[in-house]
Every structure is written in structure tokens, then in C-alpha cells.
Amino acid sequence: MPTIFAKIVRGEIPSDLVYQDEQVTAFRDISPVAPTHILIVPNKVIPTANDLTADDEQLVGHMVLVAKQIAEQEGIAANGYRLIINCNEHGGQVVFHLHMHLVGGQPLGPMILKRGS
Ligand code: AMP
Prior knowledge:
binds adenosine monophosphate, HIT family, subunit A, alpha+beta
């Protein structure tokens, strides 16, 4: 079954597209948690971070560099932002097509879990 993100990558369902190249697609999250909330997804389906292999090393690096570029375009690079990849149930992953959240545009506060809690 294709994921909803695979359909967005192929343009089969609408999205607020921010960036696309031969490796990744970025679009605005439909339910943003901050003024800027963009998802960067590989064009090929990788279900979770657990499914990454050494062959994906360049792809993951590319995802981070694209996130950095989009942060600059969005005007949030200097103040800062957060990049998040959720994995499986405890990570809160809902869509099983690897994606990186780029979140910013306001102070984001501390991480959810502090060390030792
Ligand atoms: P995660 O919990 O890491 O799996 O996050 C999935 C994210 O996908 C959530 O933030 C959703 O709001 C977002 N989302 C789900 N469907 C869509 C969609 N059609 N377009 C944009 N974002 C979506």
C-alpha cells in the first residue's frame, strides 16, 4: 500500500510543496505545531529510521542539507529551529514513510524529555 507521503511525492494528492528534487520532497505539514512546520521526505519509501542502511547515508545527509536550505528560505535559520525524526510507537510516528520535521518560527522550549527523566 502506498503511503500518503508517496502519493504526495508523485503529485497524486495535493500538498503545499516547498521543494522537490530527484531524492527528496518537502511540503508543509497539514497540522502545523509552529509557524514553520515542513516535512522533508525521501522520494523512495523507507518506512522508519530502523529501515535505513549504509546505502542511505548520502540520502539522509541530503535531507539535512535540504532542511537547512529551506530554513534559510523561510527566514528562520538565524533564530534557529528543530529537526525531528520520529520512529515507531514510542517515537510517536504516525506515517510510515520516513520524514524529517523542520519546526521553527518561534521559541520551541526544551525537549520533551530531559536526561534522566
Ligand atoms: P509523524 O508523527 O512523525 O509520523 O508525523 C506525521 C506528520 O504528517 C504529522 O505532523 C501530520 O500532521 C502530517 N501529515 C499527515 N498527513 C499529511 C498530509 N496529507 N499533508 C501534510 N502533512 C500531513
